[in-house]
Write a structure and sequence with these properties.
Layout: H1 21-43, H2 50-57, H3 61-67, H4 71-96, H5 104-120, H6 123-130, H7 140-160, E1 167-168, H8 170-189, H9 196-208, E2 211-212, H10 245-267, H11 274-281, H12 285-291, H13 295-319, H14 324-341, H15 343-350, H16 358-376, H17 387-406, H18 417-429, H19 431-438, H20 455-470, H21 477-484, H22 488-494, H23 498-521, H24 528-545, H25 547-560, H26 562-582, H27 593-613, H28 624-636, H29 638-645, H30 649-652
Antiparallel strand pairs: 1-2
Helix pairs in contact: 1-2, 1-3, 1-4, 1-6, 4-5, 4-6, 5-7, 5-9, 6-8, 7-8, 8-9, 8-17, 10-11, 10-13, 10-15, 13-14, 13-15, 13-16, 14-15, 14-18, 15-17, 16-17, 18-19, 20-21, 20-23, 20-25, 21-22, 23-24, 23-25, 24-28, 25-26, 25-27, 26-27, 27-28, 28-29
């Protein structure tokens, strides 16, 4: 795409000097897309005609129809080109980065910031993909959903490159992607497109507050999916003159509103007609005009009706609670209950209403602002959540619900309740309390050892068992293969020798241990000392659950020399690199962190070796105070280390509040 509002070039040459047909088609497409961007920015998509587009692009109608079936397809193709360039800008920025992201926030920022810059540099293009696309009718909401999916994929790819096992769960990824686009849409609509890069940085910090190690999976469907439609209303009997008017009028109005909901889901606003509404509602056109002056008035009435009922239920359930946590839980519960019982109304409110164009986009913006204010009321915390983040949370929740409804799962909406509660709570309370209050299962602190599924894994497990029972020097790869029921020649296809078997087996076990540690570490993001204490507790629990693996690791360090020692140093370095940033401004961070880290690791390894030698690996969790104090004191001071280290492992896993 070219810059905003480009002036099309003169007509292409004809005759002997004509361009190749493929090149001519490419130039025509570019001119038509540029013309569409310019005209839609000036007057809107519905008011822009094919003739005007062709005239502005200096392209004949026949040439336009050779490229696109119609105006709607031209719009979608133009949007695709804009999005493709924005994604290309993200990829280029990531390739050009001198250092890879080392945190969830930096990984998310590596996507959002270049994406925002690409949009902010061309406001008309940004408006087309985030605002004006809804004016194209029923294709608008699915297009937004596809854009959310693409942004979610970019975020997931960036997070997958992190050196530490941190991620955003599927629900959080969708909430973040949808919330970011909703926040960008609002700024574009209100003329603040240039502020998108700054907003992207703030939204990246917000996204990082949802980081977990073990994912929090979305629930599977309860039953067969079905379209989001409300129960049909039975038609009135003939000769309604005999019925009381106070019964007939509301019934007719309700039928009209239900018909609008049905047609909006099927065709969108632009394709809807008054005769079509009357036919769907099984009333006369004259009866329609007795209730509404136009289809626009009926459209507004159903949106006000749907939003009013949803907000009233949510507000009523929320404001009756004494605590903010209860207010959020009960408000969300009322929200998803409405979706489950009136799926057609819900779909209209979060999705189909947008097909009415810019005015409807503004209405939805205002609705999300109302929900943001509702859930912000009474929110605790010394650092209040910003207006931008509050709005992104509301928009993200709406986006997740819209995905759920589009998948035909509106009646399953109550299953989303804990994920929606978590999305609201985590930025204010921290991950641990949000997980506890939302009812989501906390991340496991012990990662189960995988069941050996192939010859190599069976050989490795048998080798670890041999080292634990006979000692490292006596354990051989041939004996391990025999115990595992594997031919020695097959075992050597997996491992060159005993050293390779030991190191590969220890690497797999270390990955599980670090995953458990990182999960526990992330459960206390507002309390660095407690986060480290929990990580150490998870480490000891993991070691106690796999005694053969700890035995192998200790023996490998003592018998394999530099290769095993370097592995120990690398994992220790990762751990202490994670510890240092969580120390607060008043904590005693030593100047020589690396040298001190090596001394601490030697002390911890001594405790582990003693338990292995004395066959007391199962008692390792009881050594948590000793090891925790050893690790915490240099970074957080003696007093803080002593207070935290005395917490038993079970208490360390409880929600924290610093």
């Amino acid at each position: 795409m070219s810059p905003d509002a480009p002036r099309p070039k003169p007509r292409l040459p004809r005759g002997l000097n004509a361009l190749d047909p493929d090149d001519r088609g490419r130039v025509h497409r570019q001119r038509l897309q540029d013309a569409l961007v310019t005209l839609v920015a000036e007057r809107g998509f519905p008011e822009t005609s094919i003739r005007e587009i062709c005239s502005h692009a200096h392209v004949g109608p026949r040439d336009l129809y050779a490229q696109y079936p119609g105006k709607q397809e031209l719009l979608l193709s133009t949007c695709d080109a804009i999005v493709a360039e924005a994604i290309a800008a993200v990829r280029a920025s990531q390739r050009a980065a001198t250092t890879p992201p080392d945190s969830v926030e930096s990984a998310v920022a590596s996507v959002l910031v270049p994406f925002a810059r690409a949009l902010s540099s061309r406001p008309a293009h940004a408006s087309l993909i985030l605002v004006d696309v809804f004016s194209a009718g029923a294709v608008g909401p699915p297009y937004r959903r596809g854009l959310v999916t693409q942004l979610r994929g970019l975020l997931a790819d960036a997070l997958a490159e992190l050196p530490f096992p941190r991620t955003l769960s599927e629900a959080s990824l969708i909430v973040v992607a949808a919330g970011v686009l909703q926040a960008f849409q609002r700024r574009i609509r209100t003329g603040r497109t240039r502020s998108l890069p700054a907003a992207a940085l703030e939204l990246a910090a917000w996204a990082a507050q949802y980081q977990t190690v073990a994912p929090l999976p979305l629930p599977a469907p309860i039953g067969a999916t079905a379209p989001a439609t409300d129960p049909a209303i039975e038609p009135l009997p003939r000769n309604t003159q005999r019925l009381p008017r106070q019964f007939v009028v509301p019934h007719q109005r309700d039928r009209i509103l239900r018909a609008v909901v049905t047609l909006a889901a099927r065709d969108g606003y632009a394709a809807m007609s008054i005769p079509g509404i009357a036919a769907e509602a099984q009333i006369s056109i004259r009866t329609f005009y007795q209730h509404f002056a136009s289809k626009h008035e009926a459209f507004e009435a159903i949106y006000d009706h749907a939003f009013g009922r949803l907000f009233a239920r949510t507000w009523g359930a929320s404001t009756q609670q004494e605590s903010w946590l209860d207010a959020v839980r009960e408000g969300v519960r009322a929200w998803v209950a409405f979706i489950a019982t009136e799926p057609g109304m819900a779909r209209f409110g979060v999705s189909d209403v947008l097909t009415a164009g810019r005015e409807a986009v503004e209405k939805v913006d205002d609705a999300y602002s109302a929900f943001a204010d509702l859930f912000a009321a009474g929110r605790p915390g010394d650092e209040p959540v910003s207006e931008l983040v509050s709005y992104a949370i509301a928009g993200g929740i709406g986006g997740l619900i819209a995905h759920w409804i589009a998948d035909g799962r509106a009646t399953d909406a109550p299953q989303l309740e804990p994920h929606l509660v978590y999305a609201i709570l985590a930025p204010a309370t921290g991950d641990a309390e949000a997980l506890h209050a939302s009812g989501l299962a906390p991340v496991p602190t012990v990662i189960p050892a995988p069941v050996p599924s192939d010859d190599g894994q069976r050989t490795a497990a048998a080798y670890a068992q041999l080292v634990a029972t006979d000692g490292f020097p006596a354990a051989t790869l041939e004996a391990a293969a025999r115990i595992a029921g594997v031919a020695p020649t097959v075992a050597t296809e997996y491992f060159d020798d005993e050293t390779a078997c030991a190191l590969q087996t220890v690497d797999g076990w270390t990955d599980r241990t670090f995953t458990a540690m990182a999960a526990a570490f992330a459960s206390a993001p507002r309390d660095g000392a407690l986060a480290v204490h929990r990580a150490l507790g998870a480490m000891l629990a993991q070691m106690a659950s796999e005694p053969e693996m700890l035995h192998l690791a200790v023996e490998a360090v003592e018998h394999l020399g530099p290769r095993a020692v370097s592995r120990r140093a690398r994992y220790a370095s990762l751990f202490f690199d994670a510890v240092s940033p969580v120390a607060g401004p008043n904590d005693a961070i030593p100047a020589q962190t690396r040298q001190l880290s090596e001394m601490v690791v030697d002390g911890v390894f001594g405790v582990l070796r003693r338990h292995v030698r004395e066959r007391r690996i199962a008692e390792l969790p009881a050594a948590l105070p000793e090891i925790s104090y050893l690790c915490l004191a240099p970074f957080f001071g003696v007093r803080r280390a002593n207070d935290v280290a005395q917490l038993p492992f079970a208490a360390a896993l409880a929600p924290s509040a610093r």
